Amino acid sequence: QTKPWTFQIFLNAHNEIDSFSYTNMNDMEKIGSTDQVNVVVQWASMKGGDTKRLLVTKDNDTTKVTSVPIETLSPVDMGSADELVNFIKWGAEHFPADHYFVNVWDHGSGWHLKTRNNVGIRDISWDDRTGHSITTPQLANAIKQASVAINHKIDIYGSDACLMGMVEIAQEMAPAIDYFVGSEETEPAYGWP
């Protein structure tokens, strides 16, 4: 059934902020999906092992995640733009909507023209298992591919990650999104409420 909105959260906790991913999942479960909104998550947790795709359901238990996985994958590279595209396409296929909100949750360092001390700077979605991350051009390309897959622009793109609210990042994605949300400052480890 097509709903007005599908929220897709790419929740990458393949790093030291893993414990905060559980907080975020429990926060989402306080509201859950509704008759108007699908809340869909691809959640990769260091502690949890496998990567899970879930439709978030409402519950009142803030001590554990109770949403049942729809699909369980072997641990995937959450630092891969291709994996982000796969998730967005999967979400649009299984949870069609008139409008889409796509959010990437994890570390972010913004966009940089050069590297520091010949060490590459990781823009967003740091996967410490693989050492990979998604660069700004890769992110822009992923969002473009996703918008083609859903046959219109992504209505809202959000980076729930530090330092990603930069004009350079928004400009890269401008052709494929209507609205961009991000913080120009550092964010608390637990992310958005």
Give an account of the 3D structure:
With 193 residues, the chain is α/β, with parallel strands linked by helices. 25% of the residues lie in helices and 31% in strands. Helix 2 packs parallel to helix 3. A hairpin with a 5-residue loop joins strand 2 (37-45) and strand 3. It contains four helices and nine strands; from the N terminus they run βαβββαβββαβαβ. The mean pLDDT is 92. It has helices at 18-29, 81-94, 136-150, 167-173, and strands at residues 3-13, 37-45, 51-55, 69-73, 97-105, 124-127, 132-134, 154-160, 177-182.
Largest sheet: 7 strands, mixed
Helical content stands at 10-25%
Strand order within the widest beta sheet: 4-3-2-1-5-8-9
Rounded to the nearest angstrom, the radius of gyration is 16 Å
- State the total count of DSSP E strands: 9
Uncertain segments are: none
Given the helix and strand composition, which structural class is it? alpha/beta
Quick structural overview:
The chain is of the alpha/beta class. It is built from four helices and nine strands.
